[in-house]
Design brief:
heterodimer; A: Four Helix Bundle (Hemerythrin (Met), subunit A); extended
Amino acid sequence: MNIIFYIAAIVAFVATVMVVTRKNAVHALLYLIVSLLAVSVIFFISGAPFVAALEVIVYAGAILVLFVFAIMMLNLGANSGKEESKLLKPNAWITPAILSLILLCELVYVFINYDGASVELRVIGPQEVSQSLFGGYMLAVELTGMLLMAGVVGAYHIGKEKKREYHRYLQTNENS
Amino acid sequence: MSELPLEAGLLLAALLFLTGLVGVITRRNILFMLMSIEIMFNAAGLAFVLAGAHNGQADGQVMLIFILAMAAAEVAVGLALIIQMHRKYNSVDTDVLSELRD
């Protein structure tokens, strides 16, 4: 089991690094899907099969398809990659990378000094998750529903193509 | 099930989160920034699920379901904003959004 975990972890990390460094948006999306699948494997072997399925269905299946549709609608030209390449010089990313490395060293230090005993894992199936979700978290479920509703209405309103309606005076001015 | 090292899992979550953070900071293409935010959400969810599995509770998985719903709403609104930006400026580069600077 451990070797599966480490392989999936390496795949997830490499794919995520590829997402951040790609120039073509569609290539980056494919790497992102790989990364999500690897994380889903990790969920599965850590005793959470329901969430592993949700990760594939909702994240890789729905959210990333939304990304694909958006990229399709944008119809990005071939020169968008060239503009990006001159921004990816070392002096553009070396400072944030060093800062993130410092944060990472801190986190590693915390994890090494953490002496929690690793307990035997057990599978937590959909039944137990649902009982927790609709038991103690009922209010949060309702609020999440409202958030999704607001998100859908807001996305429709923002994404709608607005017709420019001029006043009669401006219309005649424009024609003349 | 055998036992998994919690430290390694949380380390992976931290690595993924920092990769997403570097992506948000360095990329100027707003599509990549949104993707990096997704990576960060995913890393946070990974930490939730692994900690929940470590404690033998279902709460971590419940939190991941909430993160999924929030990410879906965020992506819908964010992509609509990107499409409007592309219509107005004909670009997905965040450097063109500098009208307030002058």
